[in-house]
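To illustrate the input format used throughout this study, we show a single complete record. The first block contains the structure-token representation of the backbone; no residue identities are included at this stage. The design step must infer an amino acid for every position from geometry alone.
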């Protein structure tokens, strides 16, 4: 550090110290600030005590009402103000049924207290209920004109059920006086999982705080276990949300998580593996806080979700608060349909709650896998047959790449004796010289060493897309094939209840038959491949690793969807068949003759070979210079 730097730092510290000293508050200012803070703390304490006292009095009145005792009207009005008439009553549930949904509405809180998807069943054949009773809660906080804080979940609404064209309309009305009320209006279409929800005020400005222009909303739900494999279901039960005009975000899937958003949120999804409840706001949620909690293993619930947010609200009733709620399956076709005809910057992107992998894999799924799956589904009802046909189509698409990879491997195989001769002629200490001789041989023979790897790399997006698609395809749910009664879950052939350390944590207390067959066929495929590869000390170690990989897959896929293991099983069988067909039609003796004939002709260097040779020369030159420098020092 030079002198000028030291002087500069000293001046900077001197300026900062002087600025702080000159701008320090006086004793009077400090005392005034302390008095202000004390008064604020006192006021907050008083407000908290008043709220606690209010809640205590409310509980007393509620207990009296439940016991059938007379209510002190004056006392109730003092607590609830003009809302006293809605503070007591008897809870009733009104059922509304559409083609797809069965909903129940509770007069206490004016909320949906029960949601059932009529076309689906749980893994044990019970009605598929998203939530019931206290498992879910929706609440809006009202600040009244007499400075009371009320919760709509504690107030009683009057139900008004109407039929309009192709929908039921349930209005839950919170009456304050004959001319003032607050309506929660639910619209349930006959054939749609998306329901409407509006908050409409009528002459409510005189009963609410005059500063009211928004409502604080609280939404909570316990997520029931609906599927056979709890661990697998929990992995895919994730809370999602989307910022207005931005991308979709997700909470943690494997730990408790909380998020306080900073922007405007378009929708929030309480997602299970195959079903979701999604709350959408036309004008966005603000000040949104989200929480996701993993429930204990022995619980009947997978996750607990909650959302606290603020929504716009007009007490005069001129501008109703518009929202929507989706109760339905996580099916790509249905979720994508809500963006039909919508501008790209206004699209909901609800289908992104279905995890299809990274962007590249998602594109493959959306452009190839899902359209092909839906196409076959129009004509075939057996999903095992559909998976078989999809596998055949994918193998046909990849056939040129597979053949190219095989030919590259075959060329290197027939040249193996010449490579062994090079290794015998050039000692291992001269590794650079060995590599140059090998590359020269490949160049003369017209072989690209990367020719076998590149086709395999090009196949990877499809393989990973299929890996992400099958566990999330609700179409496979409870679809049977052969011995598997549910292609979206594991197909246990053997099960046990005893906990086995490590095995039970990673493998589960069962053995899936499709997964076991896939492992066996994978070992056979490895044997077929290894039989055509050269042997030796280093290759023997590599062979052991190749045989261990199928065993690892047994542990990985044992809890996965049986449809995925079935796909890999069929894919491996077809691959083995292709390998034997290639060997049948490719004469390696003729191939060697062609290579020898090609070696006699002048060869143009490929871009890869030219770059590789240039890199080798540069490395050689660097080694030569280093050796010269070492000799010079001596």
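Output of the design step:
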């Amino acid at each position: 550090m030079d002198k000028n730097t030291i002087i500069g730092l000293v001046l900077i510290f001197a300026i900062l110290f002087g600025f702080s000293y000159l701008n320090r508050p006086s004793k009077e200012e400090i005392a005034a600030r302390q008095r202000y803070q004390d008064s604020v703390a006192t006021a907050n304490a008083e407000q908290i005590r008043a709220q606690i006292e209010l809640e205590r009095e409310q509980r007393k009145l509620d207990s009296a009402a439940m016991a059938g005792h007379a209510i002190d009207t004056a006392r109730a009005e003092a607590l609830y103000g003009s809302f006293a008439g809605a503070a007591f009553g008897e809870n009733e549930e009104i059922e509304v049924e559409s083609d797809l949904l069965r909903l129940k509405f509770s007069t206490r809180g004016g909320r949906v207290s029960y949601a059932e998807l009529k076309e689906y069943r749980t893994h044990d054949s019970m009605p598929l209920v998203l939530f019931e009773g206290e498992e879910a809660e929706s609440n809006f906080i009202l600040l009244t004109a007499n400075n009371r804080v009320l919760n709509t979940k504690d107030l009683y609404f009057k139900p008004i059920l109407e039929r309009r064209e192709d929908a039921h309309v349930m209005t839950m009305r919170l009456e304050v006086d004959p001319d003032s009320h607050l309506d929660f209006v639910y619209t349930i279409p006959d054939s749609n999982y998306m329901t409407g929800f509006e908050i409409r005020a009528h002459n409510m400005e005189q009963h609410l705080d005059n500063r009211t222009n928004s409502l604080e909303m609280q939404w909570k739900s316990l997520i029931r276990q609906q599927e056979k494999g709890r661990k697998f279901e929990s992995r895919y039960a994730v809370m999602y949300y989307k910022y207005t005009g931005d991308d979709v975000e997700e909470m943690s899937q494997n730990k408790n998580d909380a998020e306080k958003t900073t922007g405007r949120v378009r929708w929030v999804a309480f997602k299970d593996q195959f079903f979701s409840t999604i709350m959408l706001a036309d004008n966005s949620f603000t000040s949104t806080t989200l929480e996701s909690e993993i429930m204990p293993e022995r619980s009947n619930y997978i996750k607990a979700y909650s959302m606290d947010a603020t929504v716009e609200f007009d007490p005069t009733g001129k501008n109703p608060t518009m929202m929507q709620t989706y109760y339905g399956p996580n099916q790509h076709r249905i979720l994508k349909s809500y963006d039909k005809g919508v501008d790209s910057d206004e699209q909901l992107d609800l289908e992104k709650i279905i995890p299809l992998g990274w962007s590249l894999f998602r594109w493959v799924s959306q452009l190839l896998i899902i359209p092909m799956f839906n196409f076959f589904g129009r004509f075939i009802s057996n999903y095992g047959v559909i998976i078989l046909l999809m596998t055949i189509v994918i193998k046909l698409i990849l056939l040129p790449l597979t053949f190219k990879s095989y030919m590259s491997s075959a060329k290197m195989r027939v040249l193996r004796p010449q490579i062994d001769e090079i290794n015998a002629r050039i000692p291992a200490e001269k590794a650079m010289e060995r590599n140059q001789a090998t590359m020269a041989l490949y160049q003369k023979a017209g072989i690209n060493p990367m020719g076998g790897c590149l086709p395999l790399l090009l196949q990877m997006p499809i393989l990973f897309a299929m890996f992400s698609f099958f566990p999330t395809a609700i179409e496979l749910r409870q679809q049977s094939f052969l011995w598997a009664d549910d292609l979206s879950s594991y197909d246990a052939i053997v099960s046990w209840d005893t906990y086995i350390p490590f095995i039970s944590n990673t493998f589960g207390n069962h053995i899936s038959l499709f997964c076991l067959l896939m492992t066996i066929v994978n070992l056979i495929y490895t044997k077929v491949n290894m039989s055509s590869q050269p042997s030796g000390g280093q290759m023997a170690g590599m062979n052991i690793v190749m045989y261990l990989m199928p065993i690892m897959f047994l542990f990985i896929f044992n809890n996965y969807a049986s449809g995925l293991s079935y796909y890999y099983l069929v894919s491996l069988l077809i691959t083995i068949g292709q390998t034997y067909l290639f060997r049948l039609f490719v004469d390696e003796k003729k191939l060697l003759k062609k290579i020898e004939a090609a070696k006699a002709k002048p060869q143009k260097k490929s871009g890869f070979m030219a770059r590789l040779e240039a890199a080798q020369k540069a490395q050689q030159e660097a080694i030569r210079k280093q050796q010269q420098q070492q000799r010079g020092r001596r």
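Structural context for interpreting the output: The longest strand covers residues 275-294. Residues 40-45, 65-70 have pLDDT under 50 and may be disordered.
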